[in-house]
């Protein structure tokens, strides 16, 4: 063994350790052929080869005092299985030699990685407990094409990068090694020698499927155990349950702060199975949306600066716990949406930033690869390996964890090169525009892949601009999402209800404008966590007036929201009318439910979820113009809004009437499509919701008196700061003798 090679191995500077360590055939000569075996065992004073087929131990010569041993085994040929026996003054031990094992990856892995089309990268990269060449251990693989040397380090080798340098696959920049005897639970990182010859900060595994609880930062080896899923029927039905015609009411949850143990500890996934899942089902929501559960170093980021895209956060327990949670949700007929962050990542040194000493996951130009406003790096969507990494990660969550949907965070910053960036902090595309063509192509790729590989799963876009066709098919120029958050509706309507009722008449268009574009996309109406943080206060706390007016306004607003076209989303705590702004550092103020006003809001949200799910007119026409018609959009003087909701298939309509002033409206006439009895199926001023009980005694009678362009009309009592829903007892084409099931 040449001295230069020996020195490189001892100094952890060798780029091809498998070329020298382990067994190697030597050509036949005067002394005959055979094998030469080299091993690096720093603690050993003497080292022996123990052939697997038996026979006497073969001593190896010590080449240096640091632990390199070498010896010739005449008449041996590859493949040759053996173990090593080491001795020193403290005793004797046996070990496997990682360098005697062949590769665990193949040319197809190289090809698909470079091409960006590997759909199961998480099965090939990262750490996996396997049986390789008849021996159980853990195989490691990581992508670091710019590195001069990569080692896997952990407690198992005293975090010594000399012990287990990896084999480089030159066609792809992948590095791999099999460590015999290493099992699940081992903590590890990668030690990388950059292209400049400098050792990088130790890196967590981009494909690590579990991680230590912060502030520790190592990845953890996970066993590839099959989870006993029992949700095949649910998965088969979820496509219909998540269509544009289905009722979708989402409860957005920050899992670490929904509830806490009395001593401040996080609830585990099993705790949430017992407490959260039945609560959400009891409230009548159709889905739970979890703010990012991918591992993140900073609690205050809420998960939106993830560092382990494949690792469920250790805050809530092990990865299998999240699978049990999803299964429990499906058992309760609840879909699960996971927030997913492919836009950017933090600059923590153990993460993806300059992973192999160069810009790798991030774009190399800081004007594309760095977001000053957030202090984060942005992914290089134009690099096929990076786009493939992210696309396969989307499949990982939908396939391995049976997520029913992903909510893609910060789409606006992905598709717009200038979004959130000051002049001079961004560069235009090749045509001089602001569109990020690579990000657009990536999003289309992800949406198509999920549709193909996880049938029925839905992808939601948080897109805050007027980018055209977010929910339109890619073949017609769209991005291919199923739904888009309606940020304009949210901003406008929250501005409106924060106004003093005396001034609302001058801002009537804040409410009506949303219907100008309501059917341009398939929308979700999001009252999300973003609206109750950063000094905005809670929804209740930002409202004007005394406590009575605030609670009444909030109830009226929820009634308005559930009657408006679009799927629904409420952030946890909104359903109990929290006074305090949300904080990730404490649980929700559940003690508020001892007061009738807060119980009343909770009762209202539960009732809204029930009637929204059970009355087709309130959900089936969400995404079609035929599902909505104004009754009167112009009553700014009274701050009253009225419209008709329809299912688009001739079913019973629902009239939604909103009075957003504290003045009762006792004599207003509203046009209706038919005469007869219209039941009051919802009144947000009902005493059971904490209201005054003013209303229409459960029904109004419409007469054949035209109004607002309709053939019939009725005088309706509108309570102060209230929303009511009316629904006809019978359709015009129904006959008296038919049996009509009552809607709740």
Which band does the percent of strand residues land in?
15-25%
Find the structural class using helix and strand composition. Answer: alpha+beta
What is the number of strand segments? 35
Q: Please give the order of strands in the largest beta sheet.
A: 15-16-19-23-24-25-26-27
Major beta sheet summary: 8 strands, parallel, barrel
Q: Enumerate how many helices there are, as a single number.
A: 16
Whole-number mean pLDDT:
93
Low-confidence stretches: 735-744
The CA-CA distance between the termini, in Å, is: 84 Å
Q: Any idea what the shape is?
A: elongated
Could you tell me the radius of gyration in angstroms? 32 Å
Determine the fraction of residues in helical runs and give it as a percent range.
10-25%
Spell out the blueprint of helices and strands.
Elements: H1 3-10, E1 22-26, E2 34-40, E3 46-51, E4 58-62, E5 68-74, E6 82-88, E7 91-95, H2 107-115, H3 121-124, E8 126-132, E9 135-143, E10 149-154, E11 167-169, E12 174-180, E13 187-193, E14 219-220, H4 232-241, E15 249-253, H5 255-258, H6 269-283, E16 287-290, E17 294-295, E18 308-312, H7 319-331, E19 335-340, E20 344-345, H8 366-369, E21 370-371, E22 376-378, H9 384-400, E23 405-408, H10 411-415, H11 437-453, E24 458-461, E25 483-485, H12 487-497, H13 509-512, H14 514-517, E26 523-527, H15 547-563, E27 567-571, H16 596-614, E28 628-632, E29 640-645, E30 654-659, E31 665-672, E32 676-683, E33 699-702, E34 712-718, E35 722-728
Parallel strand pairs: 15-16, 15-27, 16-19, 19-23, 23-24, 24-25, 25-26, 26-27
Antiparallel strand pairs: 1-2, 2-5, 3-4, 3-6, 4-5, 6-7, 8-9, 9-12, 10-13, 11-12, 13-14, 17-18, 20-22, 21-22, 28-29, 29-30, 30-35, 31-34, 32-33, 32-35
């Amino acid at each position: 063994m040449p001295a230069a090679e020996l020195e490189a191995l001892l100094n952890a500077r060798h780029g091809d350790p498998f070329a020298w360590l382990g067994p190697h055939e030597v050509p036949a000569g005067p002394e005959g052929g055979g094998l030469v075996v080299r091993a690096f065992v720093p603690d050993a004073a003497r080292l022996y080869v123990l052939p697997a087929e038996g026979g006497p131990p073969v001593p190896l010569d010590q080449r240096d005092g640091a632990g390199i041993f070498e010896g010739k085994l005449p008449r041996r040929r590859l493949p040759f299985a053996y173990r090593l026996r080491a001795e020193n003054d403290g005793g004797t031990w046996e070990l496997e030699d990682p360098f005697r094992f062949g590769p665990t990856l193949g040319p197809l892995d190289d090809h698909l990685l470079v091409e960006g089309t590997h759909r199961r990268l998480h099965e090939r990269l990262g750490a996996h407990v396997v049986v390789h060449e008849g021996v159980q251990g853990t195989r490691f693989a990581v992508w670091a094409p710019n590195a001069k040397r990569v080692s896997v380090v952990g407690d198992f080798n005293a975090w010594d990068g000399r012990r287990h340098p990896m084999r480089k696959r030159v066609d792809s920049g992948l590095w791999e090694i099999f460590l015999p005897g290493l099992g699940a639970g081992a903590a590890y990182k990668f030690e990388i020698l950059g292209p400049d010859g400098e050792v990088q900060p130790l890196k967590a595994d981009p494909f690590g499927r579990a991680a230590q609880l912060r502030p520790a930062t190592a990845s953890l080896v996970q066993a590839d155990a099959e989870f006993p899923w029992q949700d095949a029927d649910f998965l088969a039905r979820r496509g219909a349950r998540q269509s544009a015609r289905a009722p979708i009411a989402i409860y957005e949850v920050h899992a670490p702060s929904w509830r806490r143990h009395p001593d401040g500890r996080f609830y585990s996934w099993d705790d949430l199975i017992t407490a959260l899942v039945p609560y959400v089902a009891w409230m009548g929501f159709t889905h739970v949306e979890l703010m990012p559960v991918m591992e993140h170093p900073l609690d205050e980021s809420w998960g939106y600066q993830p560092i382990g895209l494949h690792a469920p956060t250790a805050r809530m327990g092990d990865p299998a716990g999240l699978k049990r949670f999803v299964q429990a949700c499906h058992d309760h007929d609840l879909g699960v949406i996971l927030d997913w962050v492919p836009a950017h990542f933090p600059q923590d040194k153990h993460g993806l930033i300059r992973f192999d000493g160069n810009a790798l996951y991030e774009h190399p130009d800081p004007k594309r690869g760095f977001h000053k406003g957030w202090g984060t790096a942005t992914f290089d969507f134009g690099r096929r390996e990076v786009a493939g990494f992210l696309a396969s990660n989307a499949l990982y969550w939908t396939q391995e964890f049976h997520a029913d949907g992903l909510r893609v965070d910060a789409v606006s910053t992905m598709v717009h090169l200038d979004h959130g960036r000051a002049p001079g902090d961004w560069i235009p595309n090749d045509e001089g525009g602001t569109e990020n063509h690579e990000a657009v192509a990536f999003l289309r790729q992800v949406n198509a892949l999920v549709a193909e590989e996880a049938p029925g799963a839905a992808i939601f876009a948080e897109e805050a601009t007027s980018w055209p066709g977010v929910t339109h098919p890619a073949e017609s120029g769209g991005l291919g999402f199923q739904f888009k958050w309606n940020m304009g509706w949210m901003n406008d309507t929250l501005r409106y209800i924060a106004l003093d009722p005396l001034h609302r008449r001058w801002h009537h268009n804040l409410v009506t404008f949303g219907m100008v574009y309501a059917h341009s996309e398939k929308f979700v109406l999001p009252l999300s966590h973003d609206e109750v943080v950063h000094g905005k206060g809670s929804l209740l706390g930002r409202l004007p007036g005394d406590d009575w007016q605030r609670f009444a306004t909030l109830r009226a607003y929820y009634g308005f929201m559930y009657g408006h076209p679009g799927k629904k989303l409420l952030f946890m705590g909104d359903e109990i009318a929290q006074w305090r702004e949300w904080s990730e550092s404490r649980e929700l103020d559940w003690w508020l439910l001892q007061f009738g006003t807060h119980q009343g809001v909770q009762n209202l949200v539960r009732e809204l979820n029930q009637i929204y799910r059970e009355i087709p007119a309130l959900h089936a026409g969400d995404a079609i113009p035929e599902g909505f018609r104004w009754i009167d959009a112009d009553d700014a003087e009274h701050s009253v809004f009225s419209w008709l909701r329809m299912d688009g298939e001739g079913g019973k309509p629902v009239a939604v009437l909103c009075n957003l002033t504290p003045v009762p409206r006792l004599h207003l006439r509203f046009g209706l499509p038919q005469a007869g009895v219209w039941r009051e199926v919802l009144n947000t001023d009902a005493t059971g919701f904490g209201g005054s009980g003013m209303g229409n005694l459960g029904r109004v009678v419409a007469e054949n008196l035209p109004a607002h362009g309709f053939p019939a009309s009725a005088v309706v009592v509108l309570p102060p700061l209230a929303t009511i829903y009316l629904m006809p007892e019978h359709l015009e084409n129904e006959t008296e003798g038919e049996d009509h099931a009552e809607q709740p």
